[in-house]
Amino acid sequence: MSEGIPLENETELLAWAVLRAANRTQARGTTVRLVVPRTPEVIHELDMEITEERLLTAEEWLVDRGYLVPADVVLTRGTYTITPAGLEWLRGGIPEPPEAPQKATEGASGPEPTTGGVEASPDSESIPWWRRVFGG
User: Fold this and answer.
1) What structural domains does the chain harbor?
2) Which of 35-49, 88-102, 119-133 has the lowest mean pLDDT?
3) Would residue 110 be called left, alpha or beta, if left means φ above 0 and alpha means ψ between -120 and 50 degrees?
4) d(CA 52, CA 55)
5) What pLDDT, in 10s, does the model give residues 63-86?
6) What phi and psi values does residue 35 have, to the nearest 5 degrees?
7) How confident is the model at residue 19 (pLDDT cuts 50, 70, 90)?
8) What percent of the chain lies above the pLDDT cut of 70?
């Protein structure tokens, strides 16, 4: 778990990433295709290691908010369809992290961490958002 990010917001960010990956690999922007967030193709699209427990928490979060609806099929457990609300949520972009931890770090005084006395390179800004949030 990441420091400074409340569990609820971390779950929301992970849920957004899971829904985005499922949409890209399976739903392709429609509510009529089935998605199974636990499939290897979705997990590969996430490009991060994720435990089964965290993935299930993200699925439950999406279902609880109406972004995924369980599909009435008996072929595979954990089969859903993305709702119109889920697609709209994705269009809104990645959820913003809470402001409180950001304000605390903005006002903090003290030396900036460095690596071997070298300033951070512009490439550090190209680190994927999820790697900054979840690490790894």
Assistant:
1) 1-99 (1.10.10)
2) 119-133
3) left
4) 5
5) 999 999 998 776 667 899 999 999
6) -125, 145
7) very high
8) 64
- Amino acid (1-letter code) at residue 27: A
**What is the SS3 string spanning the chain?**
CCCCCCHHHHHHHHHHHHHHHHHHHHHCCCCCCEECCCCHHHHHHHCCCCCHHHHHHHHHHHHHCCCEEECCCCCCCCCEEECHHHHHHHHCCCCCCCHHHHHHHHHCCCCCCCECCECCCHHHHHCCHHHHHHCC
Tokens encoding 41: 């193709």
Cα torsion through 74, 15, 136, 43, rounded to 10: 30
Q: Does the pTM exceed 0.70?
A: no
* Cα–Cα distances in angstroms (integers) from residue 81 to residues 15, 76, 84, in the given order: 15, 13, 10
CA distance 104 to 66: 33
Give the C-alpha separation, 77 to 98, whole Å: 33
